[in-house]
User: Which sequence fits this backbone?
């Protein structure tokens, strides 16, 4: 019972951001839990869930900047505000009636190029929609008609940066991240004025020269070109006024012989003051990474009981196969465990960080490594359910061989890669108190990493996609499949839920199509 | 301090100056070859053989000025302005030089793909043979004079390594489905998920079944052992076995 009380308190920690009629930002609320209190769709009636609408994005016939066919895969999580759903692909934003799937407006950005690999979605504040573009712009649109209000450059396309992240609104800040790992460029995160786009601050994912942390690089030159992209949207604790996000791989990506050391602040979970951009603390899930295991997976915030004490927690299931629980006020490490079996560490250090095994760094003749480059999890969002106390990850047990191509003392770019491998996809339900796997649901059939996010609800449901193009509801307590809908292709984004006019909707993207399911309870 | 550093870097790199043309400069190979000669003659001692810099001169592949250049519009003025640089190159020579530098940049940006396959034949042949017939128990299912005869000629060493670790399925999985109270139906697996299973039986007929706890599904996957063994191979085992397989010409 005491546990239950604490879990209910956990719900209240973000009560001010509850969102029954909306999905206000990338993760719903700012906690990153992707947990909804809605219950109209629940275990007792899930088999009555019906398809309410379908919307297939149509970007038109214009060629895609940067070459190739237009990437129409919906990888972003839609935002729903005031009955309007906003969805994206690179260079395109649609406003859609959240009740019917009808298009209200479509904005097309005229692009100068950049990687069109995907877009994670928009942020909405009052009458403005914010979106990042592959050619390095933050664009502000009018919610009424999609007309541009302003745009501002947030990165340099010439240095092979691009932008794909969903902006996040924190107070009077629009938080943006950047992408790109072809060349050795530094990652950073920025804050912009929501009315004008003016830069408020920029925080680079490397220490300042001369600080103790700078000694985790062999030289200032290596550090200033050391990567650490900010690929995935942040989470935020309004009580602590701290912004949390992960940073990506150090550069060069695979050939790490020119950057000996742990390479801070690449591969870190970072806590910043959102008003100043000042670093509060960091924790590094993958010191000296040489496997492209960006530690950008959503830092999920919840309150829970650890050894009889209520704590403000942060948990991440990281791409390298390890699960971390930290005190989000201080960054103090609480728990480290594997959520899939890995083979690349020599153990855990005193700070709770995995110690990389040099034998499993990429080799000219190959090193057999698990997880593979795709990772034990990738960008798709996890979910934390305060009722079960479980952290859910759409995970993979995956193997590949890592090769070192560039043996120069100063490699640049990637200098290596992994190749092929075996992969088995599953949902892992992790007990945050012990790090143990409470249950595993292996997806039958095709292997490979699943690119579906997860959503849990107070209706005792856990939604996600399987590798066989099904949109599935599992029992969050056991992992048993309860319901499914066969879509035309695999789920490609994170599902959301919202309630309008007493009707609860669940919306999910698969390829170029959004599917809206509804429960009409009388 | 952080902001000051950011601003300083921004200023140095001209980060927020005017944008260049939309497309990156397309490398002219002939011009790049000419540019390489110019680079070798005038630049190599300070900027290094691969333009990655030395203690005497900065890395040009990581140089925002080079990255922002189009046909010498940035490099040309910089050469005239900077001390100890070749300031009297013709416009054509500067253009050739930028083609060489852009070629180096493009090669770096794509170096996740090898120009030549890596050498994976570093293992010990006899140790590989011993593993094959001993610890690995490979000989329980495979034979160097049977299914693996000539495998060293059939595949290059890199593909051999990959196929040994992650063998591809040569024929469909076989499945047997036993409905509640019904007869078992066997065939080639067509589809399986949590909710249905489908097969094609020996006559070629497609058969599908809804899955529930009363429907028994048995799949015989001959690759299961290979997957399980991934946890037991050492990298040295891997190299030795590849060396042994490569000898099976």
Assistant:
């Amino acid at each position: 019972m005491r546990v239950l009380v604490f879990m209910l308190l956990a719900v209240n920690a973000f009560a001010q951001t509850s969102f029954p009629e909306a999905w206000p930002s990338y993760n719903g609320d700012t906690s990153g839990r992707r947990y909804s209190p809605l219950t109209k769709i629940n275990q007792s009636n899930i088999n009555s869930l019906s398809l309410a609408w379908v919307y297939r994005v149509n970007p038109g016939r214009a060629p895609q900047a940067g070459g190739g066919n237009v990437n129409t895969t919906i990888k972003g999580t839609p935002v729903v505000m005031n009955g309007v759903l906003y969805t994206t692909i690179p260079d395109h934003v649609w406003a859609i009636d959240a009740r019917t799937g009808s298009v209200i407006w479509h904005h097309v950005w005229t692009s100068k190029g950049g990687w069109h690999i995907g877009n994670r979605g928009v942020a909405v504040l009052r009458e403005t929609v914010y979106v990042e573009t592959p050619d390095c712009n933050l664009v502000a649109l009018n919610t009424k008609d999609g007309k541009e209000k302003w745009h501002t450059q947030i990165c340099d396309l010439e240095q092979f940066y691009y932008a794909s992240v969903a902006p996040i609104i924190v107070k009077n800040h629009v938080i943006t991240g950047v992408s790109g790992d072809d060349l050795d460029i530094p990652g950073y995160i920025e804050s912009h004025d929501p009315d004008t786009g003016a830069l408020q601050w920029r925080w680079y994912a490397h220490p300042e020269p001369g600080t103790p942390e700078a000694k985790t690089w062999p030289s200032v030159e290596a550090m200033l070109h050391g990567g650490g992209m900010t690929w995935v949207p942040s989470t935020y604790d309004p009580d602590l006024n701290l912004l949390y996000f992960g940073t990506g791989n150090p550069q060069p990506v695979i050939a790490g012989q020119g950057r000996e050391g742990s390479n801070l602040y690449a591969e870190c979970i970072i806590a910043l003051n959102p008003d100043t951009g000042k670093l509060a603390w960091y924790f590094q899930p993958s010191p000296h990474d040489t496997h492209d295991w960006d530690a950008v997976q959503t830092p999920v915030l919840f309150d829970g009981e650890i050894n009889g004490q209520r704590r403000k927690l942060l948990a991440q299931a990281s791409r390298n196969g390890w699960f971390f629980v930290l005190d989000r006020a201080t960054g103090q490490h609480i728990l480290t465990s594997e959520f899939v079996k890995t083979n690349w560490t020599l153990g855990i250090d005193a700070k709770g960080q995995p110690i990389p095994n040099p034998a499993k760094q990429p080799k000219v003749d190959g090193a057999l490594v698990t997880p593979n480059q795709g990772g034990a999890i990738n960008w798709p969002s996890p979910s934390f359910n305060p009722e079960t106390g479980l952290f859910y990850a759409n995970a993979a047990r995956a193997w590949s061989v890592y090769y070192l191509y560039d043996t120069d003392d100063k490699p640049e770019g990637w200098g290596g890669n992994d190749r092929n491998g075996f992969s088995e996809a599953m949902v892992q339900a992790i007990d945050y108190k012990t790090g143990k796997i409470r249950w595993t649901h292996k997806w039958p059939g095709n292997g490979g990493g699943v690119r579906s996010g997860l959503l849990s609800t107070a209706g005792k449901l856990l939604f996600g996609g399987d590798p066989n193009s099904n949109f599935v509801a599992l029992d969050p307590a056991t992992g048993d499949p309860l319901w499914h809908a066969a879509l035309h292709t695999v789920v490609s984004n994170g599902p959301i839920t919202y309630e309008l006019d007493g009707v609860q909707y669940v919306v999910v993207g698969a390829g170029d199509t959004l599917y809206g399911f509804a429960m009409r309870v009388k | 301090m952080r902001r000051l550093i950011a601003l300083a870097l921004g200023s140095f790199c001209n980060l927020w100056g005017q944008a260049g043309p939309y497309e990156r400069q397309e490398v002219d190979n002939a011009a790049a070859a000419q540019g390489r000669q110019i680079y070798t003659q005038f630049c190599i001692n300070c900027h290094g053989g691969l333009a990655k810099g030395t203690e005497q001169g900065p890395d040009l592949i990581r140089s925002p000025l080079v990255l922002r250049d189009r046909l010498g519009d940035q490099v040309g003025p910089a050469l005239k302005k900077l001390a100890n640089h070749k300031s009297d190159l013709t416009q054509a020579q500067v253009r050739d030089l930028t083609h060489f530098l852009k070629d180096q940049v493009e090669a770096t940006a794509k170096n996740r793909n090898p120009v030549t396959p890596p050498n994976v034949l570093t293992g010990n042949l006899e140790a590989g043979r011993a593993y094959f017939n001993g610890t690995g128990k490979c000989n329980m299912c495979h034979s160097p004079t049977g299914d693996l005869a000539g495998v060293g000629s059939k595949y290059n060493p890199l593909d051999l390594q990959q196929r040994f670790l992650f063998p591809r399925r040569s024929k469909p999985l076989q499945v047997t489905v036993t409905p509640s109270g019904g007869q078992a139906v066997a065939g080639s697996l067509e589809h399986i998920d949590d909710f249905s299973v489908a097969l094609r039986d020996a006559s070629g007929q497609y058969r599908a079944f809804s899955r529930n706890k009363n429907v028994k599904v048995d799949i015989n996957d001959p690759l299961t052992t290979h997957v399980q063994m991934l946890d037991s191979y050492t990298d040295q085992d891997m190299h030795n076995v590849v060396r042994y397989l490569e000898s099976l010409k």
Summary: Chain B touches chain A through 55 residues (CB under 8 Å). The two ends of chain B are 65 Å apart (CA to CA). The mean pLDDT of chain B is 90. Chain B has eleven helices and five strands.
